[in-house]
Prior knowledge:
four-stranded mixed sheet
Amino acid sequence: MNTFTAVFLIALALSTCVRLWLAWRQARHVHACRDQVPTAFADAISIDQHRKAADYTLAKTRLSYLHILVETAILLAFTLGGGLQWLDDSLRGLLSSDMTRNVVLIGAVMLISAMLELPLDLYRKFGIEKHFGFNTLTPLGLVRDLLLQTALGLVLGLPLLFAVLWLMQAAGPLWWLYAWLVWVGFNLTLLAVYPTFIAPLFNRFEPLESGALKSRIEQLLNKCGFTAQGLFVMDGSKRSSHGNAYFTGFGKTKRIVLFDTLLKHLQADEVEAVLAHELGHFKRHHVIKRMVWVFAASLGFLWLLSWLMQQAWFFSDLNVQTQGTAMALVLFFLVLPAFTFLFQPLASLYSRKHEFEADQYAATQSEAHSLVSALTKLYRDNAATLTPDPLYALFYDSHPGAQQRIARLQTAAHN
């Protein structure tokens, strides 16, 4: 067995086993805590609601076993199983243009992966989510979403893919730097146009009606020195009963979006507190910080790809004979997760740090007890488990645990 083949198999086996082990720990821990509501939530969440959250988490966790195994099987089939080489050989007999063949190869890998994972996604939406009363998306709506996503992928993704592949072939040793600049520019442009041109393709956005809530939010925005293009209510209920709120865009395109499901369940002071938390992300520059980290990491990965594509063993040790730009790009992004998974706790820790900071900011700009009340309702209505396994949460949870988060806010409320 070749050296990189062994390294790849060890990394893949380790990441797969750790993912399965974490899912097992999560299921075991949530099940063990199923019949006892944590003391901090005993007055707000009933035992039946707590059990529903546990059962919902268990159902999703059990499905994740299959997701992990299917993803691993797809990766092995494409690489050591010879799938990528077979696709490339087949396309060479059909397409004479190198650029067209490269683009079709990448598209075929994406399409095959999506189709193989589609049954699990359908079961999650129309099985688990429907069973627990969250999915409101119809099969026709799903088809519409898939068609729209595909069309957008073609309209937006194809030019980017052509540009990157052309730079890899024609821009010389520094292609990775030029490709990174194009990718950064693409993402910044997408952030700017998403609120106005892309999001409305999937949802209806209506200005928040004048009234006490709008006045309250406008006062909060003035207090925090935040300007937005507008306050909008999104028909999130057309797909799910889960509630949420978010900021989108940047510069003059910033807007605040409230899910209609959120407004249905929260009082005005609770909505204000949730928005104060989101404003905390803006005031603490979290979005910019995360973008800087993502852009820096992408620069490093593109440089690594530029080196790997010059190494014959990178292709041969993964059972690929064709050494080309598209093949290098596909191989790199297929195998990368196996090597980076164990670093995921660092990203999750960084995200949880930001959430604590946003909570702290919200407690200074609104009532901390209102945010506690809002979060408790969101945990309850979204059937979010209050008792995740600590190690599972360390790897996966971008938000702090409910008990730790509420405890900090209650301390802030009494100060």
